[in-house]
Amino acid sequence: GGTCNVKYAVVAYCGDDSLDTDYGWNGSVQFAFVIQSDVPDNGDQGAEQDGGQDADDDEPFGMPQFYNVTMIGDGFQSADGGTRAAIWRDNAANGYTNSIFTDFSGSAFAFESRAAVTNSYDRLLAGDLKLRNNIVGVFGTGNTWEQLVRIDDQNDGHLDLNAALNDALAIIADGGNVLANPRIAFISRDRAQALNPRASNPAVTSDLFPVDVRDPFLKQTSYKGAFDPSADVPLWTDGWSALYRLGYTAR
């Protein structure tokens, strides 16, 4: 809950979901790096976004915003075969802007739709759940939006899933999101001083969504994802993070 903001966050090798929001939290996050373990059954969703405390109509509604996130999954060839980048449930409506999602064994985005209650899929249609100018690529389930996006209707038949998926895909396309390999410099999950999460695809530095300059917490950047793609700029994880101190990231 609450409205606290977070900047420069590392979430590595969680046993469950990495970015897990609920209880109506409404803060902002900028510059967050997620990497999952490639060990089967050691980790779940990259992000699990839930709404209020209990019922779907609990207030305040959860509408936090994430900017400049780099999210590396469990490995697109992982034996898990189903770990997703992000799911939205329980009327959550947070969004991602100028971010990168890659290397997951499952799908990219899943939106919950439930009969007789307002839900996260409805919030997507209403424009409350925002996905803007993100890069999505290298997933185990395929390389098309139709393969990477899911509508979860609780198997109760209240929704025409094909029509709902088409509506969701149109919104994702209108948001400037692109399917592309972000070309992460080097993905390593060992203590070999080799992990380099910079992205080198030219799309990383093009078609950026401008952040709200009225918010002093947010910083304008010239790139998508958590890290400046220039090799001349040190990783902001250097020196202080566990990834650095335990010898995961490149030196």
User: Termini distance?
Assistant: 37 Å
| Mean pLDDT reading | 93
The main sheet comes to:
8 strands, parallel
Q: Per DSSP, what share of the residues sits in E-state strands of 2 or more residues?
A: 25-35%
| Oligomerization | single chain
Low-confidence stretches: none
Q: How many β-strand runs?
A: 15
**Which term fits the overall shape?**
globular
Helix proportion:
10-25%
Please state the structural category. Answer: alpha/beta
- Our Rg estimate from Cα atoms comes to 17 Å
Helix and strand sequence: EEEEEEEEEHEEHEHEEEH
Counting DSSP H or I runs of 4 or more residues, the number of helices is: 4
Walkthrough of the structure:
Strands 1, 3, 5, 7, 8, 10, 11 and 13 form an 8-stranded parallel sheet that branches. The protein has a 5-stranded parallel sheet with strand order 2-4-6-9-12. It has a two-stranded antiparallel ribbon with strand order 14-15. It has 4 helices and 15 strands. Helix content is 12%, strand content 25%. It has 251 residues and is α/β, with parallel strands linked by helices.
